[in-house]
Amino acid sequence: MKNYFEDEGNYELVKMWRRDFHRHPQSSWSEFYSTGKIAMELEALGYKIYQGEDVIDPERRLFLPDREILDYNYNLAIENGIDERYIIKSKGGLTGVVGVIEGDIPGPTIAYRFDIDALEINEDLSEDRKAVREEYYSKFEGYSHACGHDAHTAIGLLLGKYFSENRKKIKGKIKLIFQPDEEKLSGAEAMVAKGILEDVDFLIGGHIGANLFELGSIAFDVENILAVTRGEVEYYGVATHSTGRPEQGKNAILGACAAITHLNAIARHGKGSTRINVGKILGGTGYNTIPDYCKFYLETRAETKEINRYLQNRAEDIIYGAAKMYDLKFNYKIVTNVEGGENDEYLIEKGIEAVKEVKGIKNIKSKLKMNASEDFVIMANDVKKRGGKSIYVVHGTNVDGGHHSTTFDFDEKVLINATWFYASMYDSLINN
């Protein structure tokens, strides 16, 4: 294993893959380029490939782009070199891939999960940036890999190559899960609904950076993977002329503004972290018309599902109260609900054992507060309910900019560190 991951050729290969994904970013349910590239590479490595409705429940997808956008991105992938054979099953927003390889010796089913979606953010094209100098910046305007999922995808492919070339070591079954739509938090649910984890004994996932910004470090005891709820609030009023008949109007925007102001005044909880945000508001038709409709997008996050429930209860009271104040009708629809999570102690212990074999990792962070949400938890909980175990690892790396920024980049040596760790973790589990 040591010789494999110290081989300069494998480092150059995983770096090439990462930069290829970075050049071709596509967001939730439109990740056709990455899907096609992953499927092609895994098939060449001898994996059995599952795609489309074999791995995605269409009814569980949220925030699905319009057909026009999906078709545009599908054709864009083909124009940029993807063989349509590898994405035809994904047409219409059924992106993602599961690759399966089995050994000749009985053993557990171990799954690794890698998210593949990019963000709807333009990348900074300043000439002093490394991505620009070395020409791996985003080719797709309006999109960039500003969170590191290009790294995760490349790590998954190198891990797949390692297992393919060391097939005699495999005991049982390995599943490589390349998940779409992590950012909008419905990709995991759509895959879980198809039963792809029903036979999984151990589930392993992770993220580069994520509050651990030192190359050569790693965290197993990851805390504050926050529960998150996202909802859409609509207020319905009565439209009238704002000067001629203002007394007959019922202003939906005023009701929404009252709700938003008081939502941000909810008392924080003494037993854990909380977050609340309104990220988008829509309403009104002009200067002189009292608006009869307003909609806003609300998100709560909390350290536990109980604290998140507290936020939601208070939010519902405020939304209702604002409607009463302004004599409005309202609708509050929850569109995403993801629980918080924690790692299994057994896998934390195995991780500490496994990392000793990884040359590039010298520092184990005892505890790390991630302070973010991750729909990996949906997969983890699905595995745990059948007696399986899961772990979410943070791989330390130096970062330029920050996650979700226009200048995000990282030290690519983390690609080898993370892949080497995942391979070592496999050995630690099967040789118990």
From TrEMBL:
Keyword Manganese: yes
Cofactor note: The Mn(2+) ion enhances activity.
GO biological process, one term: folic acid catabolic process
This protein's UniProt keywords: Manganese, Metal-binding
Entry's Gene Ontology cellular component terms: cytoplasm
Gene3D superfamilies given in the database record: Zn peptidases
Residues of the Peptidase M20 dimerisation domain: 230-320
Pfam families documented for this protein: M20_dimer, Peptidase_M20
Entry binding sites for Mn(2+): 147, 149, 183, 207, 404
Cofactor requirement: Mn(2+)
Gene Ontology molecular-function annotations: dipeptidase activity; metal ion binding; para-aminobenzoyl-glutamate hydrolase activity
SUPFAM superfamilies xref list: Bacterial exopeptidase dimerisation domain, Zn-dependent exopeptidases
Protein name: Aminobenzoyl-glutamate utilization protein A
Protein source organism: Tissierella praeacuta DSM 18095
Lineage: Bacteria, Bacillati, Bacillota, Tissierellia, Tissierellales
